[in-house]
Amino acid sequence: MYQTDPPRSPKEVLPTMYDLKSEDPEEPGLPDEFHDLQPELLRLTFRPANYPADQIFVASDLNLYYDPRHPQWYKRPDWFAVLGVSRLYEQQDLRLSYVTWQEGVNPFVVVELLSPGTEKEDLGQTLREVNQAPTKWEVYEQILRVPYYFVFNRYTDELQAFGLVTSRYQALPIEGQGLWLEEVQLGLGLWQGSYQGIERLWLRWYDAVGAWIATPAELAEQERQRTEQERQRAEQERQRAEQEHQRAEQLAARLRALGIDPDLP
């Protein structure tokens, strides 16, 4: 009787992150400045309190490999976050790409920034031939089953949110500040403000009380202002103490002029 080897997992037999392409210099549509700044702001403000920082991976414009049957197929989300996975590949190396069959965890949320050339694919409005790779919408909805998918049009400042309901994306209402994601205790909304010197509406994460999550630079500025305020309060206290001392000295001088020793009990 022949003895067969046990089947091997996709992680063991399929290409790893090091085997797969991480960039394509011939790929059209290189990111513009907004596609650099907006994902950066999302990364800096995505801080779920219920996950340790070393168990959160966020990326932008990174190859996302999604289908072990077609290991060369990938999508390149403008921004995505994965929860419960090491920040480092195999807990030791920065990722060249995100390979789902190697990682074992799919993204929790994806954000696409619309541009004229990608709008229809991002919104699931394109058709494909049977032998063609699926669209981003199909990958996120049907293959990776990403729970939350956001699409933002910076030309119209329109934010659309979709949530996975059973097996299909359903539009989610953007109410008030944005959309609250209970699983991470964060909301995603539109913030009017200046980031990197650019004043406009930006996508940004906020907390349970509606406060926008501060970036490290903003935290440093807040700490600088707090330190300055404490310094000013200390200086005011010093000046008040000095004034009290001067008034006491003046009173003592007047008492001495009257022949009274102010030092006697």
Automatic annotation (TrEMBL):
InterPro entries: Uma2. It holds the Pfam family Uma2. Residues 26-183 form the Putative restriction endonuclease domain. Residues 1-29, 222-248 are annotated as: Disordered. This is Putative restriction endonuclease domain-containing protein. It comes from Chlorogloeopsis fritschii PCC 6912.
